[in-house]
Amino acid sequence: MLVLRMTRHGAKKRPFYHIVVADSRSPRDGRFIEKVGTYNPMLPKEDAKRVTLLDERIKHWIKNGAQPSERVARFLHTAGIGPKVEYRDSPKKSAPKAKTQERMKAAEEAAAKAAEAAAAPATEEAPAA
After folding, report:
1. Domain containing residue 49
2. Is residue 126 scored above 60 in pLDDT?
3. Is the dihedral angle over the CA atoms 113, 118, 121, 124 positive or is it negative?
């Protein structure tokens, strides 16, 4: 199966990616069929050179059955070549456990009550003075 994906280039801590058409079984930075764009994450998001794409070649490969990776599909949607991509949810493993969530909720409620209590006496004393 053909895929549109990124291959990493650049120096250590200075990433630069080529967007390529490759066989899905080949390694990430291994053999590819054709280079169809670049991605430079070091440039600001507004920069036009951050993502460069060869529109005609990408359309050709998609018509011939190439599937874009999730990140490349986002680039294609932004460029107006592909459909909108649904983002994956963040993993549930990173969410706090049930007991921790209860503790956090109780702490928030206690803080809200303390803020109300601190605000209430201040308003009552002001007219008396």
Report:
1. 2-79
2. no
3. negative
- Is residue 107 domain-shared with residue 50, that is, in the same domain? no
Task: Quickly list H helices, 7-93.
Answer: 55-63, 70-79
Q: Quick one: how many helices (H) and strands (E) in the chain?
A: 3, 5
Domain count across the chain: 2
Pairing mode, strands 14-23 and 34-39 = antiparallel
Segment 53-89, tens digit of pLDDT: 999 999 999 999 999 999 999 999 999 988 887 776 6
**What contacts 81, CB < 8 A, 6 or more positions away?**
53, 55, 58, 59, 62
6 in Cβ contact with 20 (< 8 Å): yes
pLDDT at 40: 96
pTM for the structure as a whole: 0.66
Is residue 99 situated within a structural domain? yes
Reported as half-sphere exposure (CB side, CA atoms, 13 A), residue 105 has a value of: 7
